[in-house]
Design brief:
alpha/beta, Rossmann fold, Rna Polymerase Sigma Factor, Chain: A, 7-stranded parallel β-sheet, 16 helices
Length: 416
């Protein structure tokens, strides 16, 4: 156990956690990690007990009901009006699209796990930031679309945004060695940083010919070689839009400019982030391909606890490969840098257009190779303005998504 008094003081005897998006991959792995940490606590091997005070899902009420059975004292929220909630006590259930935000207001947790997919996660992320509640964030769209309003609220309230994405969690841990053990985003970049590089597996099409990528099927695009994820994230990984979103997210989390951010193909997905300092040193974060590792880091920071994952065996790796990203194959990366440099609500437009394009591709209404084309064309149509407020962000999101949908329909009509 570390001797730093600030670190010891940060270890709460009980940490009250709200899990928004509890039935998805991040949500279920968070619950596994909490069970693991509570077992360590009961054995005297970790100072904190984790109390689950809220669980929220979109529509998977079958899994949510099982989770509620394990955590009977947790407040329950369901977002989809069409979801079957007959399994729950309706007198205590929050059943409306605003359930995540209401759960935060009602339970006032110490930590919010933001694992809701898409722009739907923004209101609850913003609310937690406004209330000074720390956020373990897996919902990158909250910062891509609403980075200015979320980070502004966090700076004013003192809330910390603790990244769950493996790349940002790795970057954060590299920066801990430069900034000290209690460092956490959002923050401004240290003067010593020259460049930050995030790694990408390259997805299922990293070695495919361009023509084959253009006409890839939904099944092919969902077949990620490394990670098991939901459909939206899997498609974003196949286009590398996921990495583009992560670059924008890193800009907001760590105060990095477009010139300080880069991405490379790293098929092994073992190195998650690299930080080059102005004296030529390069710090790298390595870890197993197990999301429970970054989840646990957000739950235990600034402490460290024994992990449940298999340890990384570097002798079994054989080699680590890094390749530049071909902009012709993956134009999303340059779009991200354009958005960072442009500022204002450009991230909102990119995120909305991408959501519309991915939805259309999954519904077989758009060719895979046209996803990033639609995003680029939508960005070209919009004049960027300051984000301003949640209402402004959501209004921009809706208009940009409608514009992207119009472009998609026009493309489909011209193809007939």
């Amino acid at each position: 156990m570390p001797d730093d008094p600030d670190i010891i003081a940060a270890a709460k005897p009980v940490l009250r956690v709200a899990i928004l998006g509890s039935t998805g991959s991040i949500g279920t792995q968070t619950l596994e990690t909490i069970e693991h940490l509570n077992a360590l606590n009961s054995q005297g091997n970790h100072p904190t007990h984790y109390e689950v005070v809220a669980l929220c899902a979109h529509e998977n009420t079958a899994v949510l009901a099982k989770q509620a059975g394990v955590y009977p004292n947790a407040a329950i929220g369901v977002c989809s009006p069409a979801a079957d909630t007959s399994r729950f006590n309706t007198s205590t259930l929050i059943h409306n699209p605003g359930a995540p935000t209401q759960l935060i207001d009602d339970t006032q947790p110490d930590l919010v796990i933001g694992a809701i997919v898409g722009i739907a996660g923004l209101p609850s992320t913003l609310r937690a930031a406004q209330l000074g509640i720390n956020i373990a964030l897996a919902n990158k769209e909250s910062l891509v679309a609403g980075g200015s309003i979320v980070t502004d609220a966090a700076f004013k309230s003192g809330a910390k945004i603790l990244p769950i994405d493996s790349e940002h969690a790795g970057l954060w841990q590299c920066l801990l060695s430069l900034q000290g053990p209690n460092y956490a985003p959002p923050s401004t970049a240290p003067d010593s940083i020259r460049r930050v590089t995030l790694t990408a597996s390259g997805g299922p099409f990293r070695n495919k010919p361009l023509q084959e990528i253009q006409n890839a099927t939904v099944e092919q695009a969902l077949n990620h070689p490394t990670w098991s994820m939901g459909k939206k994230v899997s498609i974003d990984s196949a286009t590398l839009m996921n990495k583009a979103l992560e670059l924008i997210e890193a800009h907001w989390l760590f105060g990095l400019s477009a010139n300080q951010l880069d991405a490379v193909i790293h098929p092994q997905s073992t190195v998650h982030a690299l930080v080059e300092t102005n004296d030529g040193s390069v710090l790298a974060h390595m870890g197993p391909t197990d999301m429970r590792c970054p989840i646990q880091h957000t739950l235990t920071h600034p402490l460290r606890a024994t992990n449940q994952s298999n340890p990384l065996d570097i002798t079994a790796l054989g080699s680590l490969d890094f390749k530049p990203i071909d902009p012709a194959r993956f134009p999303a990366i340059n779009l991200a840098k354009q958005v960072i440099s442009q500022g204002k609500n450009a991230g909102t437009v990119l995120n909305a257009a991408n959501e519309a394009a991915v939805e259309s591709f999954l519904n077989n209404q758009l060719a895979f190779g046209d996803i990033t084309t639609i995003v680029q064309q939508t960005l070209e149509q919009f004049e960027c303005h300051p984000a301003g407020s949640l209402d402004t962000v959501m209004d921009t999101h809706n208009k940009a998504k409608a514009s992207a949908s119009d472009l998609i329909h026009s493309k489909a009509a011209s193809a007939r």
